[in-house]
């Protein structure tokens, strides 16, 4: 795999090289089309001036060499060729003293030489090459002797401190730039590779890995979201595992009871009264299993991310009355009275689901009410909605249990609640939330329980 | 008391029969409406428990015939709890409606309630002071509240209210509510009267049960 970091470095280096090449080519074109002609013309002018001065000296050859030396000292490299192919250099010596045919024409045909026109001369660097051929040449005549004067500016003398400074500036610019880019690339790619490692951990079901990266940018946001996601996944994982453990426990224990008591029954040795007791256990456990299966199904339906409520307006007071009627026999068994104070009106809700809610709250109220006590049910109008209160005088809920009673499979004190599945109130809460309502439990140990459900849409009749 | 059970499922028929037998009724079992009608030609029943979903004539049609032509109270039983079914059932003339699966005790309770009120020449609704009794639903309305009380207590209250201002002998109440005048129910009656008084008092009823020593009870309106 090509790492991002390496890609980044390669790309930046590539661009650096490209920009240099392009820069060279462009300056070269500029040099060839403007600078070279200008400098050649300038140099030619200098050479002709020098030649004119020499010719006007009229045979005083003794002054020739000192003159050329002093001209050279002004920053030029000079070569003087006589008709005997003798070359004399002034100033910084040439590395290559070869005289090309073109250059020779200065002395042979009295023609001006304007430097190299072939091969490497097209390249800008030829401007700096220290060769005799890289000069301008003019013919001159002293004492009827033909000479050729070749001249070029001495680059070493011309390049000044400012050039060195400029070069250093450019170099440090490049170095700092490159270093900065490398640092930046590292900053960008490091959290990404950390994220990638963390994602791998998550894929392996390991949710203990959170990233400690804090940045005020997009990557910081990404890390933040990632950490949130891991947190959520961890919670889901925990609740999923507890759910599975609970379900299997709640399925296993009734099944074990049924199996055990059925074996006892078929063993024939049991007395009549024992047999009845065993059969009762089997019946109770079967009821529990059936209830659990129904509740699990309902819960998994409600858990779907897009559960569609089948809601419409219907008479809430009538629904609650019907639910009470349904439990008349149990009320009678416990000799309970129910006091109903119901505002007549229509609520906007899913009738089937709300039936489940009232059934659950009412059966809880009856279950936990002592013999010969009273249950109160009240509907009251509240702004746009209504609140429904179900109050019993039963054993109440312990303070430590109160925050947990709507959790799945939570059962307050096993001995109090051996029939329940621990899912009822969890489903109730889920249903109320689907209706954008609220549910509240007010209770104290031994002093009864008051459940208040708020539903947001209600029209009084 | 003979009770007709109409259901096409053998096991449910048997289950209901056993529960009825244990409660002291005499169940008569048939599997569809046709059998029910031919059986009724030479037998009398006090009530019928009818399943809605049956091959041939539906439970609704049979209910209609039983309640209107033969004056037999019917409890309809169905597997689905849909409202339309409930409404159709009551339109057909059923006295009550049960949704499967139901507790045997629930069935017995409703059967008992139907048998008690059916065919008795009593007023269905009694209005007294701020109290309103409905015999068809066993509701007591006080002011704007509805009070649901145990059935025996309701029966006692209804008897007293029906002849408000008159003294009702204990024996009459025992006969009407328990079906027999036995000493073992005496204590029960006392307890029920005591509780009834408490409940009426708690809920602000403007009536009072007065004891008429050595005879029975009398209901009076409190000013």
TrEMBL record, chain A:
- Report what the protein is called: Heme sensor protein HssS
Q: Which residues does the UniProt record annotate as the domain HAMP?
A: 186-238
Q: How does it sit in the membrane?
A: Multi-pass membrane protein
Which spans of this chain does the record mark as coiled coil?
none
The record's function comment reads:
Member of the two-component regulatory system HssS/HssR involved in intracellular heme homeostasis and tempering of staphylococcal virulence. HssS functions as a heme sensor histidine kinase which is autophosphorylated at a histidine residue and transfers its phosphate group to an aspartate residue of HssR. HssR/HssS activates the expression of hrtAB, an efflux pump, in response to extracellular heme, hemin, hemoglobin or blood.
GO CC terms, sorted:
plasma membrane
Which InterPro entries does this one have? HAMP_dom, HATPase_C_sf, HATPase_dom, His_kinase_dom, HisK_dim/P_dom, HisK_dim/P_sf, HssS/ArlS-like, Sig_transdc_His_kin-like_C
Q: Which SUPFAM superfamilies does the record cross-reference, listed alphabetically?
A: ATPase domain of HSP90 chaperone/DNA topoisomerase II/histidine kinase, HAMP domain-like, Homodimeric domain of signal transducing histidine kinase
Q: Does the keyword Endoplasmic reticulum apply?
A: no
| Regions crossing the membrane | 12-32, 162-185
PROSITE patterns, sorted: HAMP (PS50885), HIS_KIN (PS50109)
Report the EC code(s) recorded for this entry: 2.7.13.3
From TrEMBL, chain B:
The GO annotation for biological process reads: regulation of DNA-templated transcription
* DNA bind region: 123-221
Q: Does the entry feature the keyword ATP-binding, yes or no?
A: no
The answer to whether keyword DNA-binding applies is yes
Q: Pull one GO CC term from this UniProt entry.
A: cytosol
Alphabetically list the UniProt keywords: Activator, Cytoplasm, DNA-binding, Phosphoprotein, Transcription, Transcription regulation, Two-component regulatory system, Virulence
From the Swiss-Prot or TrEMBL record, state where the protein is found. Cytoplasm
In terms of SUPFAM superfamilies, this protein maps to: CheY-like
Q: Which Gene Ontology MF annotations are present?
A: phosphorelay response regulator activity; transcription cis-regulatory region binding
Residue ranges of the OmpR/PhoB-type domain?
Answer: 123-221
InterPro entries cross-referenced by the UniProt entry? CheY-like_superfamily (IPR011006), OmpR/PhoB-type_DNA-bd (IPR001867), Sig_transdc_resp-reg_receiver (IPR001789), WalR-like (IPR039420), WH-like_DNA-bd_sf (IPR036388)
Q: Where are the 4-aspartylphosphate residues found in this chain? A: 51
Top-level division of the source organism's lineage: Bacteria
Where would you say this protein principally sits, based on its record? cytoplasm
Q: Where is the Response regulatory domain?
A: 2-115
| Chain's role | Member of the two-component regulatory system HssS/HssR involved in intracellular heme homeostasis and tempering of staphylococcal virulence. Phosphorylated HssR binds to a direct repeat sequence within hrtAB promoter and activates the expression of hrtAB, an efflux pump, in response to extracellular heme, hemin, hemoglobin or blood.
Write down what this protein is called.
Heme response regulator HssR
Query: What does the organism's lineage look like at the top?
Result: Bacteria, Bacillati, Bacillota, Bacilli, Bacillales
